[in-house]
Design brief:
six-stranded mixed beta sheet, globular, alpha+beta
Length: 186
């Protein structure tokens, strides 16, 4: 498994999982896809039935694509600003527990970051390594209420579980462990 550093500063650290053979890590892939008109048109065409709860049929595709691109750009900027102290953004404020009722003291906690529009269908999934330090495990455009209701959601749940098990098996439980793992892999 490959882990990529998106940023590692005094303020926050964001890492991302990169699948073997993949050209990009899952953080970069998400924001590239969410800014790609062709990708979004195909995605929304394949999921048109789920879009009706969000938009009127006449404005469906064009609005969904434009809104997604607009939100993705703002969302990515907010993530990247978390690397700089002057913006006052902490990664911990951008993530919530993936599973309700789970204690904040759980090691390698599974988290999600919903987009910032109200409502938003953009999601980034990650493992919290420690305070303001996260490892991105995937993302999705979530059009249904529950992740288990579609293939993308089930894949995200599998991914986050796989990465958490990998981290546990390899005793990667702190930011320093992750940094050492990345250095040893290079």
């Amino acid at each position: 498994m490959k882990i990529i550093s998106i940023f590692d500063t005094e303020n926050s650290s964001l890492f991302a999982y990169q699948m073997i053979g993949a050209k990009q890590d899952l953080f970069s892939k998400a924001f590239n896809n969410w800014s790609d008109t062709k990708y979004l048109l195909k995605f929304f065409e394949e999921n048109k039935g789920d879009l009706y709860k969000w938009y009127d049929e006449n404005e469906l595709m064009e609005t969904a694509v434009l809104e997604t691109i607009k939100e993705a750009n703002s969302y990515r900027s907010k993530f990247l600003r978390a690397s700089d102290k002057k913006y006052g953004i902490k990664l911990d404020s951008m993530f919530v527990n993936l599973h309700r009722g789970e204690s904040e003291e759980v090691e390698l906690m599974q988290k999600k970051s919903p987009g910032f529009s109200t409502p938003s269908w953009l999601r980034v999934y990650a493992i919290r390594i420690e305070s303001n330090c996260y490892l991105v495990t995937g993302s999705m455009i979530k059009l249904k209420a529950k992740m288990q209701e579609n293939k993308d959601g089930l894949n995200q749940l599998k991914n986050i579980k796989f990465v958490k098990e990998f981290l546990e098996k390899n005793r990667l439980k702190t930011k320093n462990d992750i940094i050492k793992y990345i250095a040893d892999a290079n």
